[in-house]
């Protein structure tokens, strides 16, 4: 679980009610199992409450996030090596 809600902020006009999804993957696991990975756009913000990786889905690995906004045409953004999953949350740098 993340310490705060994960948010996607639209810089352009996206209608309220538009579905937004988040996927995570890497070379070893093309699609990690996520819970609560879709949200609905409201006032240009999609708020993902309780977004979490399920089980041992990529523990200790860096992931690329894929954010999909289901407008017409669909908008897709990728953020390479965006997150590293640990069992006990974020760690201080050594």
TrEMBL record:
Predominant place of localization: nucleus
Gene Ontology CC annotations of this record: nucleus
UniProt GO molecular function: ATP binding; DNA-binding transcription factor activity, RNA polymerase II-specific; RNA polymerase II cis-regulatory region sequence-specific DNA binding
UniProt-listed GO biological process terms: chondrocyte differentiation; hemopoiesis; neuron differentiation; ossification; regulation of cell differentiation
Domain Runt, first and last residues per copy: 1-94
Localisation: Nucleus
One Pfam assignment: Runt
UniProt xrefs under SUPFAM superfamilies: p53-like transcription factors
Keyword terms, alphabetized: Nucleus, Transcription, Transcription regulation
Statement: the UniProt record of this protein carries the keyword Nucleotide-binding: no
PANTHER family in UniProt: RUNT RELATED, RUNT-RELATED TRANSCRIPTION FACTOR 3
Name used for this protein in its record: Runt-related transcription factor 2
Annotated organism of origin: Carlito syrichta (Philippine tarsier)
Name of the encoding gene: LOC103267190
């Amino acid at each position: 679980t993340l310490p705060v809600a994960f948010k996607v902020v639209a810089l352009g006009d996206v209608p309220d009610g538009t579905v937004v999804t988040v996927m995570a993957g890497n070379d070893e696991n093309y699609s990690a199992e996520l819970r609560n990975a879709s949200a609905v756009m409201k006032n240009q913000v999609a708020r993902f409450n309780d977004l979490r990786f399920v089980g041992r889905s990529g523990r200790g690995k860096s992931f690329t996030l894929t954010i999909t906004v289901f407008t017409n045409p669909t908008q897709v953004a990728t953020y390479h090596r965006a997150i590293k999953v640990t069992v006990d949350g974020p760690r201080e740098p050594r």
